[in-house]
Design goal:
Elements lengths: L1 H14 L4 H29 L5 H29 L3 H21 L11 H6 L4 H21 L2 H7 L5 H29 L1 H21 L4 H29 L4 H29 L4 H20 L9
Length: 312
């Protein structure tokens, strides 16, 4: 969590950087390091946890990720606005070094997975169950990305929220994400992947539709945003447990495929949302988002088996 917190705290400076090339390379380095860290962290969680607690272990990592954004981004903005943006970089270095020592002391030594050639890694995509699990992830994140990328202009122009109210709404969304991640992990351990994933996806799609229908009421929008965040983040640990269960012997590869699919889908979703806004009202993004998640739910109903388990 410390590692992700210090990355989040420096993001406000990156978005206002004066040197385009420097910003570009820094964002690449930060993205690479964050992706590697998250993949390794989730892989370690699956290895250290008992088989019946895999979902809870993954949700703890995901909750740390969401918590870092809830705390780190506002804190970084506060420091940059009232003190000196360079202090964010000082925090970056200090927390990064501290995290290294904490990890060295807290994480036990474990045997790594046997190296897998790139050709064999790509061969996993030939497995129909792995491929379908990735397709579910793709449409799930696609729907989320189409809607959330443009959530601020939606709240501003459709829900008629003030900028201060939008800040409160997004803060509530962030707080709900922490709770949702924990609920998703615990529910996966207790009720299994199929029930948890399908319920999360269905509620996710419904909440996006409700967001468009409730735009006339600020209170209703706030409540729907919380419901959306809970359902969205509850699906993350479940999706990863489902994917890892397809090839437990290559859990790190599965988690990396999850991350890659997620990032690809977010990029495409943001682009599709932008295209939609050229010819349609801004409220269309939440309807398209609901459609994307609904497609993920329909596919999941067909392909996700009951009783999915992960063995270490």
């Amino acid at each position: 969590m410390l590692h992700l917190l210090h990355l989040s705290s420096v993001m406000p400076w990156l978005f206002s950087c004066q040197d385009t090339y420097l910003c570009f390379y820094q964002r690449i380095v930060l993205a690479l390091s964050a992706g590697i860290f998250l993949t390794v962290a989730i892989t370690m969680a699956t290895k250290l946890a008992k088989p019946e607690k895999i979902g809870s272990a993954i949700s703890t990592v995901v909750m740390g990720f969401s918590t870092s954004f809830v705390i780190g981004i506002p804190l970084g903005r506060l420091v940059a606005a009232n003190m000196n943006w360079k202090l964010n970089f000082a925090a970056l270095g200090i927390l990064g070094v501290a995290a290294v020592f904490i990890l060295m002391a807290a994480i036990p030594r474990t045997e790594g997975e046997a190296p897998i050639p790139l050709a064999k890694q790509l061969a996993f995509l030939k497995n129909p169950r792995i491929l379908m699990a990735l397709i579910v992830i793709f449409f799930w994140i696609l729907g989320y990305s189409i809607a959330f990328t443009y959530i601020t202009p939606f709240l501003l122009n459709v829900a008629n929220m003030s900028t201060n109210t939008i800040s409160v709404a997004l803060f509530m969304f962030g707080l709900a994400s922490m709770i949702g991640a924990k609920i998703g992990g615990s529910a996966t351990d207790k009720w299994g992947v199929r029930k948890t994933l399908l319920s999360g996806l269905i509620i996710h799609a419904i909440s996006l539709a409700l967001l468009a229908l409730s735009a006339h009421s600020i209170v209703a929008v706030l409540l729907v945003l919380v419901l959306w965040s809970l359902s969205l983040w509850s699906s993350g640990p479940t999706q990863q447990v489902n994917l890892v269960s397809q090839a437990p012997e290559a859990s790190s590869i599965m988690i990396s495929l999850y991350s890659s699919t997620q990032q690809l889908s977010m990029a495409i979703g943001a682009g599709l949302g932008g295209i939609a806004l050229k010819n349609m009202p801004i409220s269309s993004v939440v309807w398209f988002g609901a459609l994307g998640v609904a497609i993920a739910a329909i596919i999941a109903i067909r392909v996700v088996r009951p009783g999915v388990k992960v063995s270490n």
